[in-house]
Amino acid sequence: MEQFPDNDDDVFTGKEHTPLRNDAFELDPDKKIRKIEGLFAEIMHTLGLDMTDDSLKDSPKRVAKMYVNEIFGGLLPENKPAISTFKNQYKYRQMLVEKDITVYSFCEHHFLPIIGKAHVAYISNGEVIGLSKINRIVDYYAKRPQVQERLTMQIVDALKDALGTNNVACIIDAKHLCVNCRGIKDTASSTITAELSGIFRTNPITRQEFLHYVGSHAKFD
């Protein structure tokens, strides 16, 4: 069952929330690092590795710091990017598209990388956002154990909230290493997810314009 802190609802923007416990923020990052370090050392020991070896002895600390501060940094509310918007002084009323935004995330089922590109678009309702903020939003929600469908929706919902418009769309095309390097080991396949909101969903011309810009021939009803 998914549970969320009452005072951190904005951290979990998205139709499908990141599943966190109510006590997810009781430990500060330093305490989390120390705890994970000990637990990962136990995993390595269980695998039979010599933890006195110079190459391995500091690996638990490196992994713990990487988990908390880097690849799962999107689980820390303090890392949520400040999203400032500006008045649309130029009266630009057409679609704005930022394509090929790098996505690095981790599959929550096997904790293996998801690597791909996000394509994001919106139509201003009077407010615009700095381009780098779009990249930061993608990066923030990607830095969690994820499923690609949820990540796509979280990006769109965060932009809808920031911009005060439903006219937002996102497509992600990514490779999942849990498919590529284990199990079926299919290195050629990738996964495409789309979240189309507002006019991107209701207007076929707008939708096809977006798909044309990002180079997708997919059709979404």
Automatic annotation (TrEMBL):
Top-rank taxon: Bacteria
Positions of Zn(2+) binding: 107, 110, 178
Enzyme Commission number(s) of this protein: 3.5.4.16
Keywords: GTP-binding, Hydrolase, Metal-binding, Nucleotide-binding, One-carbon metabolism, Zinc
Gene Ontology terms for molecular function: GTP binding; GTP cyclohydrolase I activity; zinc ion binding
GO cellular component, one term: cytoplasm
Name of the top EC class for this enzyme: hydrolase
Pathway: Cofactor biosynthesis; 7,8-dihydroneopterin triphosphate biosynthesis; 7,8-dihydroneopterin triphosphate from GTP: step 1/1
One GO term of the biological process aspect: tetrahydrobiopterin biosynthetic process
One Pfam family, short name: GTP_cyclohydroI
Reactions mediated catalytically: GTP + H2O = 7,8-dihydroneopterin 3'-triphosphate + formate + H(+)
Domain GTP cyclohydrolase I: 37-213
UniProt similarity note: Belongs to the GTP cyclohydrolase I family.
Record note on quaternary structure: Homopolymer.
Name of this protein: GTP cyclohydrolase 1
